[in-house]
Amino acid sequence: MNIPAELKYTKDHEWVKIEGDVAIVGITDFAQGELGDIVYVEVDTLDETLDREAIFGTVEAVKTVSDLFSPLSGEIVEFNEALEDEPEKVNSDPYGDGWMVKIKFSDASELEDLLSDAAYKEIIGG
Predict the structure, then answer these.
(1) CATH code for the part of the protein at 8-109
(2) Among 49, 39, 29, which residue's Cα sits nearest to residue 117?
(3) Mean pLDDT throughout 3-25?
(4) Do residues 89 and 98 make contact, with C-beta atoms less than 8 angstroms apart?
(5) How confident is the model at residue 126 (pLDDT cuts 50, 70, 90)?
(6) Using one digit for the tens of pLDDT, what is the confidence trace for 61-119?
(7) What residues pair up with 101 in beta bridges, in sequence order?
(8) Would you say 16 and 8 are in contact if contact means Cβ atoms under 8 Å apart?
(9) H/E segment holding residue 123
(10) CA–CA gap between residue 14 and residue 12 (Å, rounded)
(11) Partners of residue 40 on adjacent β-strands
């Protein structure tokens, strides 16, 4: 299972990559594996400011639909529009082309609450 050490994680199986005051967010390799083939990614919160743990969208797989939770408070500034035509990128490259949103976060202290790769591995029993 791929859990890159340079990323941060949430208990909701999202990964976070920090670039300045923007967080790039997607779902983990573990999450996409549990969901199965992803057929649709919906994010209707673009340009909205959300609180941490608010729902920013959904991921639809063949068997289920899962909510996506914002790992940080802030404004959703970008959606990966490539996922509209190719949602399977979340399965094939969850930490690269399968990213979902970029959040301009408003409270840097929330970064301390994100999980390290080791802490996330403990949650998923890895």
Answers:
(1) 2.40.50.100
(2) 29
(3) 97
(4) yes
(5) confident
(6) 998 999 999 999 999 999 999 999 999 999 999 999 999 999 999 999 999 999 999 99
(7) 25, 79
(8) yes
(9) helix 117-124
(10) 6
(11) 60
The CA distance from 2 to 78, in Å, is: 25
**Beta pairing class for 22-27 and 14-19:** antiparallel
pLDDT over 70 percentage in the chain: 100
Structure token pair of residue 53: 């743990």
Which pLDDT score is estimated for 1? Answer: 79
Residue boundaries of the structural domains of the chain: 8-109
3-state class (DSSP) for residue 22: strand
38 in Cβ contact with 90 (< 8 Å): yes
Token pair listed for 109 = 């202290």
SS (H, E, C) 85-115: HCCCHHHHCCCCCCCCEEEEECCHHHHHHCE
pTM > 0.90:
yes
Q: Which two tokens stand for residue 118?
A: 């080791």
